[in-house]
Amino acid sequence: MARANVKMVPVPSTSIIPERDLYKLPVLETRHLGIDFGGLTAVENFDITIGRTEISGLIGPNGAGKTTVFNLLTKVYKPTRGTILLNGQDTADMNAVQVNKAGIARTFQNIRLFSNLTVEDNVRIGLHNSVQCGMFSSVFRLPRHWKSEREAHERALELLSIFHMEDLANHEAGSLPYGAQRRLEIVRALATNPSLLLLDEPAAGMNPSETAELMENIRKIRDTFQIAILLIEHDMNLVMGICEGIAVLNYGRIIAKGTPDEIQNNPQVIEAYLGKQKEG
Ligand SMILES: Nc1ncnc2c1ncn2[C@@H]1O[C@H](COP(=O)(O)OP(=O)(O)OP(=O)(O)O)[C@@H](O)[C@H]1O
Ligand SMILES: [Mg+2]
Questions:
Q1: 1-103+194-280 is classed in which CATH architecture?
Q2: How confident is residue 7, by pLDDT bands cut at 50, 70 and 90?
Q3: 2-11 own/partner pairs: CB under 8 Å, 24+ apart
Q4: Ligand 1 pocket: which of 44, 67, 253, 276 to mutate (most atoms within 8 A of CB)
């Protein structure tokens, strides 16, 4: 499988980021992030830095706290401890909608679409949250209402075309095959114009050819939009094939950070996760 040949460099918060992102503000930095649920510490001392155009992975056994990290970043949960800097801005006082507007979009481990609405309307719900700017406002010079309708329609189709789904625009979202629903969720997240896209197990339930296509599309999204992607995934072909930096979570704590090669050869990671994955 083709590997990205990228030089990773250390940064102060014990992370590595791609060299090309070194002199740009990191899209995300977390410091000592943690959350307790009653007596259970689900995440503790979660420190990562993600470069502006990095494809980054978060892996670890079931129940390690990976989805909880996404819920902290997106303010589904309020952190018990620690700091989240999104594009250098502390998100402590932001709610879920504000964090989305400030640049984080996500997909869910279990698909969450408006299944009775059309594919296009699902994307347009995402567009509704985005800061309206860029190409389309300058391309179309039309009366205000018509202009925004037309723009939203065109933009939705353009985003759907990433996954060659524009012909499905009028289909009911719930009627799509599973893989297409997962792709639609990614399109809807992109419609909010994020600088950081969080994907929670995007390949779950996909067959190998869909997964291979997804890998290419994740790269394409990063290249086209010049955004960062943080993905949770149990499919190690996908993780090792496209992630530039990887953090491994075990019992709520990061036990390793590194390149795919470093992670695959880390005895602690093999013991806690990778070895068990192969057995399973
Ligand atoms: N709202 C909550 N209340 C109590 N405990 C919670 C809550 N959310 C998560 N947890 C607990 O936090 C831990 C981490 O769960 P999380 O869903 O983040 O794991 P995960 O790494 O995403 O696992 P998987 O790979 O199975 O998706 C688990 O022990 C879970 O039961
Ligand atoms: Mg999870």
A1: 3-Layer(aba) Sandwich (3.40)
A2: confident
A3: 2/241, 3/240, 3/241, 3/260, 4/55, 4/219, 4/242, 4/244, 6/244, 8/244, 8/245, 8/259, 11/49
A4: 67
- Nearest ligand, CA 62: 1
Q: Which residue has the tokens 């504000």?
A: 98
The predicted pLDDT at position 133 comes to 42
What is the distance between the alpha carbons of residues 245 and 235, in angstroms, rounded to a whole number? 16
Query: What residue's CA is closest to ligand 1, atom 5?
Result: 37
Query: Is 130 in contact with 192 (CB distance < 8 Å)?
Result: yes
Tokens at 177, concatenated: 């095959």
**Beta partners for residue 219, in sequence order:** none
Q: Where do the CATH 3.40.50.300 domains begin and end in the chain? A: 1-103+194-280
Q: Cβ contacts of residue 124 below 8 Å, gap of 6+?
A: 152, 153, 156, 191
Nearest bound ligand to the CA of residue 64: 1
Does residue 43 register a pLDDT over 80?
A: yes
Q: How far apart are CA 65 and CA 48, in angstroms?
A: 14
CA of 48 to the centre of ligand 2 (A): 18
Task: With beta carbons less than 8 A apart as the criterion, state whether 113 and 188 touch.
Answer: yes
Q: Which residue has the higher pLDDT, 235 or 10?
A: 235
Give the model confidence (pLDDT) of 48-65 as tens digits.
Answer: 999 999 999 999 999 999
134 pLDDT tier (thresholds 50, 70, 90): very low
